[in-house]
Specification:
The protein is mostly helical and 191 residues long. The protein has one domain. Helices cover 72% and strands 0% of the residues. α1 runs antiparallel to α2, α1 packs across α5 and α2 packs across α4. The longest helix has 33 residues. It is elongated.
Length: 191
């Protein structure tokens, strides 16, 4: 698959933003009644709002491209019987290749990697959107109203999934590149 320049830029911005947010989360101090946040918490809020804008632009670009190509986006196959069947076939084919200690052959478009990328974008969207709720919903005293506290709990519960995604997604890209599939070259290489 060949990536257009806007997809490359959006992918790079999402990757950089999510990585920065996860690393920042390790040093930031949350506000609590009687405890002020540190500067890293404020950075986390600001970068989070920027990531939300980029992820929303990415999803908008996916929608525009899908309409232009006349098909449902492969990133989000969950409500299409045909796309789910294609995904199931690709999962089975991937399993067969992995049992032979091989990566699946490179093809023009594969449903499994696309669906996994879509899951990553959904995770990023959820974390950025829930973070935006937290940014505007915190009480001036540093506490959380009950509804916002639930959002905070969900935000913190989903964050480890993004850590896992951040570990696995680039690793698979490197493995495919080493297998000769040129996946990293197509995403980050020239033209």
């Amino acid at each position: 698959m060949k990536y257009d320049p806007l997809t490359r830029i959006l992918h790079l911005l999402v990757a950089a933003g999510v990585t920065a947010q996860l690393l920042n989360s390790l040093v930031m101090i949350h506000p609590k009644p009687g405890r002020l946040p540190n500067v890293w918490y404020e950075v986390h809020e600001g970068v989070g709002l920027a990531v939300l804008a980029v992820v929303m632009a990415y999803w908008l670009w996916v929608a525009v491209r899908s309409v232009a190509q006349g098909e449902a986006p492969m990133l989000f196959p969950w409500f299409s019987r045909r796309r789910l069947a294609e995904l199931a076939d690709d999962v089975r084919a991937t399993g067969r290749e992995l049992r032979r200690c091989r990566l699946p052959a490179e093809t023009q478009s594969r449903p499994l990697p696309a669906a996994i990328q879509g899951i990553g974008l959904l995770l990023a969207l959820f974390l950025a959107a829930s973070g935006a709720v937290l940014a505007v919903g915190a009480a001036p005293t540093g506490g959380w109203p009950p509804a916002v506290r639930m959002v905070k709990e969900a935000h913190e519960a989903v964050a480890p999934l993004m850590w896992a995604y951040l570990a696995v997604h680039p690793l698979l890209g490197v493995l495919h590149q080493l297998a000769g599939h040129r996946s990293l070259s197509r995403m980050f290489g020239p033209g």
